[in-house]
């Protein structure tokens, strides 16, 4: 199953990802668990007040449907879908920097 997903980050991190691939991020506590990985969404999210997150990467992910289902984070009321994938699952993904108009 192929999906085009998006990752918002800093310009410096975006260039590092393009050159070296993704790395798992710092753990984020959510309720009783801690999630560590790469956060992707099915829509190009805004910076949402995150200072410096001015770069948008488009990631073409090709994984079995079961992988998409397993790593999806479902939250009622969100107008987009979101996943937290281990970086190693994204190593073969095509990644490109999206030029945004201001």
List keywords for this structure.
3-stranded antiparallel sheet; 102 residues; 17% helix; alpha+beta
Topology:
Blueprint: E1 2-9, H1 11-20, E2 28-30, E3 33-35, E4 38-41, E5 55-62, H2 65-71, E6 72-73, E7 82-85, E8 94-98
Antiparallel strand pairs: 1-5, 2-3, 4-7, 5-8, 6-7
Short description:
With 102 residues, the protein is an alpha+beta fold. The chain contains two helices and eight strands, in the order βαββββαβββ. 17% of the residues are buried.
Structure description:
- The structure is a single chain.
- The protein is an alpha+beta fold and 102 residues long.
- The protein has a single domain, classed as Alpha-Beta Barrel (ADP-ribosylation fold).
- 17% of the residues lie in helices and 36% in strands.
- The protein has 2 helices and 8 strands; from the N terminus they run βαββββαβββ.
- The protein has helices spanning 11-20, 65-71; strands at 2-9, 28-30, 33-35, 38-41, 55-62, 72-73, 82-85, 94-98.
- The protein has a 3-stranded antiparallel beta sheet with strand order 1-5-8.
- Strand 6 and strand 7 (82-85) form a beta hairpin.
- The chain is globular, with a radius of gyration of 13 Å.
- The N and C termini lie far apart (33 Å).
- The model has no long low-confidence stretch (mean pLDDT 88).
